[in-house]
Design goal:
single chain, elongated, 227 residues, mainly alpha, 64% helix
Length: 227
Amino acid sequence: MGDTDKSLVIFDDLTLKIAALLQNGLGTQPTKTNSENLYIGIKLCGDNYSLWATLTKKVIDGRGRGSHLTGEPSPPSKTDHAYVRREQDDQCVFTWFILNIESSLVNNVLHYPITKALWDGLTVSYRSRTDSLQIFDHKKLNSLRQGKDTLEECWNKLQNIWMAIDRKDPNPMKETRDIHIHNKKIQEQRLYWLLIAIDDKLEPIKRDILKQDPLPSVETVYATIRR
């Protein structure tokens, strides 16, 4: 495996986890709402909103019920013969949500009248919280310095923060080319964070690394500095 491929390990690992969780949920796409319980593999606890929301939307879209999240097309009027069926479908999807939310949060969402209102309410409540946590993680990255830590200890701290950010903000790209561009940008950022964090006595090595074109992966740089 080349250095570029190695640089995508964190993102590929997350992709594999999402694929594993979705395998059962997306295996079939019934034309009618299934009254059976639906579990996506993780429950919303607050801090995991980004990953949970991504999985939930994919699974519900896979069941052919994405309109209950978007509200499009508009639901039929009460005089329409399809109204009752739509209401039944919506209550079923609403129940799927409740099954995939931690019990401590359920009482906070039962007052929503329909699934779309619940989906929008969760977005308002937890996306902003996730964004705040991401800002905090980035602040930790910007202030992290090796100090008295060994190089390995500093690297492990960086890795832990990066993985936390990946969980809260999965790669949003769909096309292979876009995924590659996004991952390359993230890798460059992480290279800079590593060089900023490590001991100032390594300045000559840092300058030599930054002169390279293209820039090496952050994993390659860590291995080089460690040697």
